[in-house]
Amino acid sequence: MIILGLTGSIGMGKSATAELFREEGVPVYDADAEVHALYAKGGAAVAPVEAAFPGVTVDGAIDRNALRGRVLNDSDAMKTLEQIVHPLAGDAQKQFRDKAHESGAPFIVLDIPLLYEAGGYAYCDYVVVVSAPAEVQRERVLSRPGMTADTFESILARQMPDADKRAKADFIITSAHGFEFARDCVQAIVRLMNRLAEEESDA
């Protein structure tokens, strides 16, 4: 089974591109959704995160805005958070991979925002980077509710520069040309992955 990593900086269109892979019937692991589940009421990360950062829990769930305020500009706090969350998310991802393998899926997509930054690219066979011009990215992000220019810059500071991601990528999908262009790119990648998986199984 081929593992295809999918990543891209904030506001680049990665989540929309992941949905295009789902529409093609490809199993997609959503790292952001998994973290949301870990932070939700009853989630495995709620107790340890609250213990590390008292006061970030509201009604039994992690308040992501409160947590962001505690860790975004504090590298030590961010490291503490990652040491709690990454192993939990890693367990969920392994379960996803195992289930997909058992189902006979020829390939899967791992949708992970910090794929390069956290080293997850090492276990991917190929990586797709979703990109867009900086001005498009900025406009998209600042249109989000509650987003400020300072918060945007703080998030960018934690992410590998887009140019560096593109230089490392096996495939680049530019989201600035609209959904149909992105869909064509996704469909071409799906055809290639299926062919490579078939060749791999025949070898």
UniProtKB/TrEMBL annotation:
<dbReference type="GO" id="GO:0005737">
    <property type="term" value="C:cytoplasm"/>
</dbReference>
<dbReference type="InterPro" id="IPR001977">
    <property type="entry name" value="Depp_CoAkinase"/>
</dbReference>
<dbReference type="GO" id="GO:0004140">
    <property type="term" value="F:dephospho-CoA kinase activity"/>
</dbReference>
<keyword id="KW-0067">ATP-binding</keyword>
<keyword id="KW-0173">Coenzyme A biosynthesis</keyword>
<feature type="binding site">
    <location>
        <begin position="11"/>
        <end position="16"/>
    </location>
    <ligand>
        <name>ATP</name>
    </ligand>
</feature>
<dbReference type="Pfam" id="PF01121">
    <property type="entry name" value="CoaE"/>
</dbReference>
<keyword id="KW-0808">Transferase</keyword>
<comment type="pathway">
    <text>Cofactor biosynthesis; coenzyme A biosynthesis; CoA from (R)-pantothenate: step 5/5.</text>
</comment>
<dbReference type="GO" id="GO:0015937">
    <property type="term" value="P:coenzyme A biosynthetic process"/>
</dbReference>
<comment type="similarity">
    <text>Belongs to the CoaE family.</text>
</comment>
<dbReference type="InterPro" id="IPR027417">
    <property type="entry name" value="P-loop_NTPase"/>
</dbReference>
<protein>
    <recommendedName>
        <fullName>Dephospho-CoA kinase</fullName>
        <ecNumber>2.7.1.24</ecNumber>
    </recommendedName>
</protein>
<keyword id="KW-0963">Cytoplasm</keyword>
<keyword id="KW-0418">Kinase</keyword>
<keyword id="KW-0547">Nucleotide-binding</keyword>
<comment type="function">
    <text>Catalyzes the phosphorylation of the 3'-hydroxyl group of dephosphocoenzyme A to form coenzyme A.</text>
</comment>
<dbReference type="GO" id="GO:0005524">
    <property type="term" value="F:ATP binding"/>
</dbReference>
